[in-house]
Write a structure and sequence with these properties.
It contains 13 helices and twelve strands. Strand 1, helix 1 and strand 2 form a beta-alpha-beta unit. It has 354 residues and is an alpha/beta fold. The radius of gyration is 21 Å and the shape is globular. The protein folds into two domains: 164 residues, Rossmann fold; 167 residues, Rossmann fold (3-Layer(aba) Sandwich), CATH 3.40.50. It starts with 8 loop residues before the first strand and ends with a helix.
C-alpha cells in the first residue's frame, strides 16, 4: 500500500481534466484538490504501469460500454477490469465516484452485468453524490458494502461559466419576446433524456405565449432527427441541435423561465445543478438524487413529478412560475468546490489508512 505520509498525494484520475468544455465537473474537482497539495494526472495505461500513485479515481466506467459493437464494448470493458487488477497489484487504492448505476443505452446487458460484477468487487471505496444515491447504489450493487462508502455532493458551476447576462439581454440575443414564457431543455440529447416526451407535452398546450427551446447536441444524430420530426409544424418550438459553447451557456439559461429535464431514468443531474446556479427553476422526475436536491433548495426551484411527463404536469409547472413571488436564488454554498475538494481528500486519506 502507498505510504500516506508522502506529500503530495498523487492521484491518477479517469478522467481528470479531459474536455472541461463538455463537462467541467472533473476539472473543477481536481483543480481545487491541487490547492490541497494533491497532484492529479490524466489517466493513461502507461502512467498506471510506470507512475507512482496512491489513488486511481474512476468516473463513468459505464462509458466503456458506449459502443454499438458488442466486440468493441467487450474489449473496452475487459481492458478496464485488467487495469483495475493492475492497480490493485501495484498497491494503488481504487475509488469510484458513482455518477450512474447503469449505462444509459443498455446495448449489451449481459456484458454490462459482468463488468459491474467485477468492478464492484475491485474498488476499495466509492463516492455517492447524495444519501439517496448511495442507498440506490447499495440496492443495485450489494457487493459495494464490502468497500468504504462516502457521500460527497456534486459541486455547482456558478464560478465556472462567464458572468451571466440579464434575462433581457439574453432574450434580445436569442430573439425571444420579453413577454414569452420560455421552457428550455438543455444538454446532450440522448434517448434516456426523453426529449420527445417534452415536445409532445408542450405541443398539447394551446398557449401562444409559450416557447420551447431544445438546446444540445444529439447522440446519436438520429435522436435529433426524431426530435425534429416531433417538433415539426409548431412555430413555438425552436431547436438548436448542436453543442452549445461555454460562452453561450449563460445566454441560453438566463433567457429561460423554466428548465425541464424529462429523464426516463437518472441518478444524478449536473444539468439541474447548472440551471439552479443561474437561478432558473427546474422541473424534473422524482428519481435518483433529484428529490434530495429538491429538499436542499426548496420546491420553488426544484419541482418534481412522478410517472410520465404530461401536458398537465408541464402546465402546472408553468402556472407556478411567478417571478415576483420567487425567493432569492437558491443557496448552493454547500456545493462550493473548496468544500467538495476537502471532502474528497478525506476519502483519499481514509482509503489509504484502511
Amino acid at each position: 500500500m502507498p505510504q500516506t505520509g508522502l506529500d503530495p498525494l498523487r492521484v491518477l484520475a479517469w478522467p481528470a481534466y479531459y474536455d472541461p468544455e463538455e463537462n467541467p465537473y472533473n476539472a473543477q474537482l481536481y483543480s481545487h484538490l491541487s490547492r490541497l497539495r494533491v497532484e492529479t494526472d490524466e489517466w493513461s495505461p502507461a502512467r498506471l504501469r510506470s507512475g507512482s500513485y496512491h489513488v486511481l479515481h474512476l468516473h463513468w466506467p459505464d462509458l466503456e460500454l458506449h459502443e454499438a459493437s458488442a466486440v468493441r464494448a467487450a474489449r473496452r470493458a475487459g481492458r478496464l477490469v485488467t487495469h483495475l487488477l493492475v492497480a490493485r497489484a501495484r498497491g494503488i487504492r481504487i475509488v469510484w465516484t458513482i455518477h450512474n448505476l447503469r449505462s444509459h443505452e443498455r446495448w449489451h446487458p449481459l456484458l454490462e452485468e459482468a463488468m459491474w460484477w467485477c468492478l464492484t468487487r475491485l474498488v476499495h471505496a466509492h463516492i455517492s453524490l447524495t444519501e439517496a444515491a448511495q442507498t440506490a447504489a447499495y440496492r443495485r450493487f450489494p457487493a459495494l458494502r464490502r468497500a468504504q462508502g462516502f457521500v460527497v455532493q456534486h459541486g455547482h458551476f456558478r464560478d465556472v461559466l462567464p458572468e451571466p447576462v440579464t434575462r433581457e439581454e439574453a432574450r434580445r440575443e436569442l430573439a425571444v419576446p420579453g413577454d414569452a414564457v420560455m421552457v428550455l431543455f438543455f444538454g446532450l440529447v440522448r434517448a434516456y433524456k426523453n426529449v420527445d416526451a417534452l415536445v409532445r407535452a408542450f405541443r398539447a398546450l394551446r398557449d401562444d405565449r409559450l416557447l420551447l427551446l431544445v438546446a444540445g447536441r444529439p447522440e446519436p444524430a438520429s435522436i435529433g432527427d426524431r426530435v425534429a420530426a416531433s417538433a415539426a409544424g409548431d412555430p413555438r418550438i425552436r431547436l438548436r441541435l448542436e453543442f452549445i459553447p461555454t460562452a453561450e451557456v449563460s445566454v441560453v439559461l438566463m433567457a429561460a423561465d423554466l428548465v425541464v429535464l424529462p429523464y426516463r431514468d437518472i441518478l444524478n443531474s449536473g444539468t439541474a445543478i447548472l440551471a439552479l446556479g443561474f437561478g432558473r427553476p427546474v422541473l424534473v422526475p422524482a428519481l435518483g438524487s433529484l428529490p434530495d436536491l429538491q429538499a436542499a433548495v426548496g420546491g420553488a426551484y426544484v419541482r418534481t413529478y412522478t410517472g410520465p411527463l404530461t401536458a398537465g404536469v408541464l402546465a402546472q409547472a408553468i402556472a407556478s412560475l411567478d417571478s415576483g413571488a420567487r425567493p432569492a436564488p437558491p443557496d448552493l454554498s454547500s456545493l462550493d468546490w473548496p468544500a467538495i475538494a476537502e471532502r474528497t481528500l478525506h476519502v483519499y486519506r481514509a482509503v489509504l489508512t484502511s
